[in-house]
TrEMBL record:
<dbReference type="GO" id="GO:0008236">
    <property type="term" value="F:serine-type peptidase activity"/>
</dbReference>
<keyword id="KW-0812">Transmembrane</keyword>
<dbReference type="InterPro" id="IPR029045">
    <property type="entry name" value="ClpP/crotonase-like_dom_sf"/>
</dbReference>
<dbReference type="InterPro" id="IPR005151">
    <property type="entry name" value="Tail-specific_protease"/>
</dbReference>
<dbReference type="InterPro" id="IPR004447">
    <property type="entry name" value="Peptidase_S41A"/>
</dbReference>
<keyword id="KW-0378">Hydrolase</keyword>
<dbReference type="GO" id="GO:0006508">
    <property type="term" value="P:proteolysis"/>
</dbReference>
<dbReference type="InterPro" id="IPR036034">
    <property type="entry name" value="PDZ_sf"/>
</dbReference>
<dbReference type="GO" id="GO:0007165">
    <property type="term" value="P:signal transduction"/>
</dbReference>
<comment type="similarity">
    <text>Belongs to the peptidase S41A family.</text>
</comment>
<dbReference type="Pfam" id="PF22694">
    <property type="entry name" value="CtpB_N-like"/>
</dbReference>
<keyword id="KW-1133">Transmembrane helix</keyword>
<protein>
    <submittedName>
        <fullName>Carboxyl-terminal processing protease</fullName>
    </submittedName>
</protein>
<dbReference type="GO" id="GO:0004175">
    <property type="term" value="F:endopeptidase activity"/>
</dbReference>
<feature type="domain" description="PDZ">
    <location>
        <begin position="103"/>
        <end position="172"/>
    </location>
</feature>
<dbReference type="Pfam" id="PF17820">
    <property type="entry name" value="PDZ_6"/>
</dbReference>
<keyword id="KW-0472">Membrane</keyword>
Length: 491
């Protein structure tokens, strides 16, 4: 699942102006990349290495040949920007050169606002773009667009066949710009058209409700700058509705990450003060850090503590955490910390496995370099990189197996991904084989995107059963999955 508000990463630093931010994964059906960020000043950089003069001469020669011999003229700025981009992109999936547009989108996205239409979308396995939900009081919401509508065209451009990222980018734009959506709606014989005007959308990253007496569902869709304030307000509201909560389900499914302070704060809300939440380690001294459940590590304002007025009962209330393959980066930090301290039971499927940190080095006033500089670790020293968080209780999306979750890629599937430095990948081939079989089964079932928190949310029901001490329907053993997916031939 992805949002029209999707940004590649997050921004904002506090601790020593060098706070790390765990970034986002665009979770489509078969694609996903998560990026963790640290915004760092140019000062305190290591000494410049000696330049390889011979290789630089070759680069200059190539540049000269392109300028003199290429079939048409190429701008100097484009050539050099593409050279930088290619050099950085060759390192790993998360290092990148950020041009003016990319850098501006990065900074905008972490603030929980964007310019667009105000719809959350997902992509089915056949490439169809489906509206999961319109954002309240957005242009799409006011126009009457509904959850379940299928977007077929944006102006004159068909969306089927475009990636989820491409579709999102086409829906975003300049304030007050107009766009026409063509949608298909169940029970409507003809396509519907909606003329919308893009505007700045303010999105709540936290929602929740009392799902039955004594039990609450609390969902964090992504970690943005306002997330902790939103979380504190929602928890306060839930306890006003039911002061004797017996259990909370914290839903981090398809949460692609975001601002690290948000992750530290969400974990801190349920853990003792001063508990270590996450640590990082890399080549330079600045990358060796430990972050704790204290306001200076999670508050974006030095004069406030968003968690100060939360009820004391929150530290003790029974807790389950829902995760899936789309849970990445900052959401894995939260799940890993709560799991290490045995504060919560983690339920769902193995997470994405994004456990590296990227440092943002500003190059000019409007361009920057995003460079992988460290790995991060859970409080007990586990590396999440290329592995993810393995739930305490494995539960599929549906009673009869996994749905779109099984079709998503994980960090370990990405080319040039960093290895896990604290775990072997000996069982990787076997795991790949099993995951491929699960993908085949999921494709055969042709599932629609799941609406989290709905009456048909099977994993949520199982998380509630866990809180109540009732039987939980766990995922099938691996041997059963393989057997079910293997053709049987008779003699």
């Amino acid at each position: 699942m992805s949002m029209e508000s999707r940004n590649e990463d997050s921004i904002k630093g506090r601790v020593g102006k060098r706070m790390k931010s765990a970034g986002l994964v665009g979770v489509g059906v078969v694609a996903g990349i998560a990026v963790s960020l640290q915004f760092s000043a140019m000062a305190q950089r290591p000494a410049e290495p000696a330049l390889p003069l011979e290789e630089l001469r070759q680069l200059a020669d190539v540049y000269g040949l392109i300028k003199s011999d290429y079939v048409e003229q190429v701008e100097d700025k484009k050539l050099l920007a593409d050279a930088i981009s290619g050099m950085v992109a060759s390192l790993d999936p998360h290092s990148a050169y950020l041009d003016k547009k990319a850098y501006a989108e990065l900074r905008e996205g972490s603030q929980g606002k964007f310019v667009g239409l105000g719809i959350e979308i997902a992509q089915s396995e056949d490439g169809t773009i489906k509206i999961v939900a319109p954002i309240e009081d957005s242009p799409a919401w006011r126009a009457g667009i509904k959850a379940g509508d299928l977007i077929t065209r944006l102006d004159t451009t068909p969306l089927k066949g475009l990636s989820l990222d491409e579709s999102v980018k086409k829906m975003r734009g300049e304030p007050n710009s107009k766009v026409t959506l063509t949608v298909l709606r169940r029970d409507e014989p003809q396509p519907l058209t909606f003329s919308l005007v893009r505007e700045e959308i303010h999105q709540k990253s936290v929602k929740g409700r009392i799902i039955e007496p004594g039990y609450a569902w609390l969902r964090v869709a992504q970690f943005q700058e306002p997330t902790l304030d939103d979380l504190a307000a929602k928890i306060t509201e839930l306890y006003k509705q039911d002061a004797q909560l017996k259990g909370i389900v914290l839903d981090l499914r398809n949460d692609p990450g975001g601002v690290l302070q948000g992750a530290i704060g969400v974990a801190a809300a349920f853990l003792p003060k001063d508990a270590a939440i996450v640590s990082t380690n890399g080549q330079v001294a600045d990358s060796k850090q430990t972050y704790y459940a204290r306001p200076e590590f999670y508050s974006l304002r030095s004069d406030s503590d968003p968690l100060a007025r939360l009820p004391d009962a929150l530290k003790r209330v029974p807790l389950t955490v829902l995760v899936n393959t789309g849970s990445a980066s900052a959401s894995e930090i939260v799940a890993g910390a709560l799991q290490d301290y045995k504060r919560a039971t983690i339920i769902g499927s193995q997470t994405f496995g994004k456990g590296s940190v990227q440092t943002i080095r500003q190059l000019t006033s409007d361009t920057a370099l995003k460079l992988t500089t460290a790995r991060y670790y859970t409080p007990h020293g586990r590396s999440i990189q290329a592995k993810g968080i393995v739930p305490d209780v494995l539960v599929n999306e549906y009673a009869d197996g996994d749905g779109l979750n099984a079709l998503r890629m994980r960090e370990a599937d990405l080319a040039k991904h960093l290895s896990n430095d604290r775990d072997t990948e000996a069982a990787r081939d076997r795991r790949d084989e099993l995951e491929e079989q699960v993908r085949i089964l999921a494709l055969e079932k042709k599932r629609e995107p799941l609406e989290y928190g709905s009456a048909g949310d099977f994993q949520l029901t199982q998380a509630l059963n866990q809180l109540k001490g009732l039987p939980v329907q766990t995922a099938k053993p691996e041997s059963t999955i393989v057997q079910a997916a293997t053709p049987v031939t008779g003699k």
